[in-house]
């Protein structure tokens, strides 16, 4: 993992100078030359106390050229909102959906314009906000082209498989856009990497296995490696108690009998109703309080871990949220 972090830090130095006044076409043609000159340009900018004025960002949906240090930002992803807030970068509007994490509660106030939902931007409101930058993720990806007509739009990958790598890549993109905050983002990566390593070493030494399940009212889904909760397996080092779980955004349907049969050392529980604010949600703890579940190894060893569902389901990929996720798992292993 040290190699990954080194690559992240090196990437910040190399990408900070991929700027200029040209559009997307010139950025593509000059990538090799810009990369070769990046270290020299970065040192020159640092010595003169200046930052690049324009950057071309490459992301999953294409390339976006924009001025650095934008001030009017609209965001349609809570994980990205978390990262911006951590670095002291404010926004003018956001898409909303589900519960805001406690550490993001200020964004529920009237000072921040609601620009639609996390899935469906309100294009008229977004246009009225006159943004310098729009940040989206998978939930609003279908609106990328339309939003790009309003302002430069950048797609932030929602961390799934290899969570920490995706997390680093997103912070690298934000460092390109906000070079004045690059040190904040790089320090966050290093700090979190160290905490993940400690958990990973303890988990792999004990050879614990586990499963991640989501309770959605009266239904259960299980998530394996390659899922949106793969941080449990890929980064923390738990062996999946079932290696054949289907990769799916919403998980694989599970039953109490299935969980009792797999009988993992650790069972990590996410309550979708709690994360989305569903008024009629039955509650994960009540749902799992039955004879089959109480007879499992995880229940006997007090290793059924009820995770902060808002952080894990809605704010995944944020810096404060990821720190909390790591701390939560670290506190549960015993």
Description:
With 334 residues, this protein is of the alpha/beta class. 44% of the residues lie in helices and 18% in strands. The protein is built from 16 helices and 13 strands. The strands form three sheets. Strands 8, 9, 10, 11, 12 and 13 form a six-stranded mixed sheet that branches. A five-stranded parallel sheet has the order 5-4-3-6-7. α4 (78-86) links the parallel β3 (73-76) and β4 (93-96). α1 (2-15) packs parallel to α7 (163-177), α1 (2-15) runs antiparallel to α8 and α8 (182-206) runs parallel beside α16. The model is unreliable at 13-49 (pLDDT under 50).
Summarize the structure in short.
This protein is α/β, with parallel strands linked by helices and 334 residues long.
CATH architecture of the largest domain: 3-Layer(aba) Sandwich
Residues in helix, %: 40-55%
Q: What general outline do the C-alpha atoms trace?
A: globular
Question: In DSSP terms, counting alpha (H) and pi (I) runs of 4 or more, how many helices?
Answer: 16
CATH class of the largest domain: Alpha Beta
State the separation between the terminal residues, measured CA to CA.
23 Å
How many domains, in number, for the residues?
A: 2
Compute the CA-based radius of gyration. 21 Å
- Main beta sheet, described? 6 strands, mixed
Strand content range: 15-25%
Q: Write the element-wise H/E pattern from the N-terminal end onward.
A: HHHEEEHEEHEHEHHEEHEEHEHHHHEHH
CATH superfamily of the largest domain: Nitrogenase molybdenum iron protein domain
Named CATH topology of the largest domain: Rossmann fold
Question: Could you name the ranges where pLDDT drops below 50 across 5 or more consecutive residues?
Answer: 13-49
Total beta strand runs: 13
Mean pLDDT: 86
- The secondary structure category is alpha/beta
